[in-house]
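Bit of a strange request maybe. I'm writing a small parser for structure token strings and I need a real example to test against, not something I typed by hand. Could someone generate the tokens for this chain?
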Amino acid sequence: MNPASPHTLRNIALLGQASSGKTTLTERLLFAAKAIPAAGSIERGDTVSDFDPLEKSMRHSLNVSLTHFEWADHHVNLLDTPGTPDFLGRAFEALEAVETAAVVIGADAGIGAVTRRAMRAADGLCRMVIVNKIDLQPQRIAGLMTELTEMFGKVCLPINLPSPQGDRVIDCFFSPELGAETAFSSVAAAHDAVVDQVVALDDRLMELYLGQGESLKAEQLHDAFEAALRQGALIPVCFVSGTTGAGTRELLDVIAKLMPDPTEGNPPRFFRSQGAEAAAVEVVADPNRHAVAHVFEIVNDPFRGKLAIFRLYQGTIAPGSQLFIGDARKPFKVSHLLRLQGKHQVDVERAIAGDICAVARVDSITRDAVLHDSHDEDQIHLHPPPFPTPVFGLALIPARRGDEQKLSDALHRLLEEDPSLAVEHDAESNETIIRGLGEVHLRTIVEQLGSRYNVKVETREPSVPYRETISARSETRYRHKKQTGGAGQFGEVALRIEPLERGAGFEFVDEIKGGVIPGHFISAVEKGVRQALGEGVAAGYPISDVRVTVFDGKTHAVDSKEVAFITAGRHAMLDAVAQAGPIVLEPVLEVHVRARADLLGELSADFAHRRGRITGNSALADGRAEISGEAPMAEMGDFESRLKSMTGGDGSYSIAFSHFDRVPESVQQRLTQEHQQRRAAGHHGAATKE
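Reply from user aminoacidic:
Good idea to test on real output. This should exercise your parser:
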């Protein structure tokens, strides 16, 4: 069945810690809704979501998997996402396609680092919390609810409650069972808390509430409930067991009756143009308007070709529709419109605004592309979610000579799929370097190169990805003049550079007045500046977090050429950086460790030894604790083996990039000296060769 209108659609992403039971819960929901004949299991390897051979062998999700089902005359698109820190980039893709982010927490494990990151990433969407595995440790659920409100605010309110044994769930919203026994709180208290929170945002409803002198019906609360979700004033909490099925039907009712449809969620953030010129574009869930869709996931199958999965935000798409990709002037024809159930694909007759579908074998489609059927929507794009920064690196060398191009092609396809994968080329070592979110992420990429694309590689650890920036403002002027007897080269550029806040990247500003540098040479100046950004000054590392302004220059009527202004821009930039107090930045990691509580002192001492610091700790069950801290990447090379030694193999940890920070002066001196030695060796080698 295709959705009848946007009002019957629900788009939900399941996020949360690995082992919180997202995939098992997906199976249970599909089974309860009669979308599958029986619930699969991770152990048997027959789940709808984790169908990739690598996912089956690793027993956890690596990709976003799209499923769907019908419940109470509603069509639900459910996206199951990875929960390990190494694959959060893939998980956050799903946030671009949904109105609701459902963060799943295992009652047996509690709130972990990934849970916190998922809640932060989903800010701006409607959010709900699903407490899973209520049958395992029902006595811990009251404490978990307290943790939720302490960490995410008193807006986290249960709309149903588990029984003391965790074998069923009691409704507290639609038809409250006021006399039922619950694991904590009471049905009446939970009901009143939600109603009070909702009516407080609606003066008209508050008047009615006070005037009636009795509880309002769920239908009366619907619009205010949706408004509370949009504003982040309410995060409803539901309870379920994906293993036993307890609470499954109640959760399905909550999704269908209370979660927003595409017309009720916060509007998508579409913009036309970039930077300071970017202007918001209204895109509404109306099937009768121009089609506007966003491609949030690409799957490259060596046998079935490229699959582009998109969320249709506006309009209607059907087989035969002519769609433009971004700013392309020539459209492509939709030959097959597909609905996905895990790896299974079914042809559908149409997709309406709010739905999630896919097209296959259109090579020119890329992830993050906007598909549309009118040139009125040229140059629009969707504001991306905050994808994690890839900083962990691995150098790749083809195992077979002549496979360099094959490796490049395979990495290009993997880059299309993964927003947190980056590929660099180290000119000094002539190596290909991949960067990702952790060791497991990079190892998985290497395995995919072999299994999917038959490219075997040798690997080695690359150097730490230091960066450079400036600590002061400076101005400089550089003239490039070259006369060789024939046509000469002339270009003069005046630049001003100033530091930006950490993580701001690079800004190029044109303040040329009076045409002293013609407009067609400004792009050449920027090209030269960008070349210098990649070279560094202090230690040879890429320069970031700077604003560069070209404000003056000179030209020659005959000799001014693009190459002259590229050269002038590059040298002016290097000179300006040298005068602006260049400093070296190092990547700092956010580290979360779970270990016995009595090891806090030893772990704190280890962090201090690594130039790190403990930022917090929280008690867990069974005498364990989670310790949070920060430490430079350069100091974390042997952390895993050290942790195993300290905990007897009983500790676990997760690492994610946090930010760049200035290195100590002693480290900068060492890096600068090493850079000078490399340059001297290079010059010596070149001179010898000559």
